[in-house]
Design goal:
Elements (H helix, E strand, L loop, with lengths): L1 E7 L5 H9 L2 E7 L6 E6 H8 L9 E5 L2 E12 L6 E8 L5 E7 L9 H4 L10 E7 L2
Length: 137
Amino acid sequence: MSSLIANIRDTKTKGQVSDLRSKGSIPAILYGGKIENKKIYLNKKIINNLISSENFLSNILSLEIDGKKEKVLPREIAYDPITDEPLHIDFLRIVDGAKIILEIPVKFINSEKSPGLKKGGVLNIVRRKVELRCPTE
């Protein structure tokens, strides 16, 4: 489980959020459970390294906010349409006893060894992700 350090943000305007981004941070929100939502921001370099992994949206992360650790699951990433850099991330708080829906990426292995493909067959991929409903634990 990866561990990230996040800070609370007190932004109220678009200009303040833009300043945050220009200083190398990514704004985010933490929601879920019966606790109120928290506006946070994270280091852009660390997040870019995690996002580049295939299964970022299906991995549970540990967020440390003001010395308090919380288990979270990244749910959505908003990207800039021109630069393709992350603009905002939504994190879902992991609550014991709750159920969530995850999209797990499917990876096809050993396709070059398949007798059907060797004889000229075609691998038709219908879904690149499988939906999984499971308890948060």
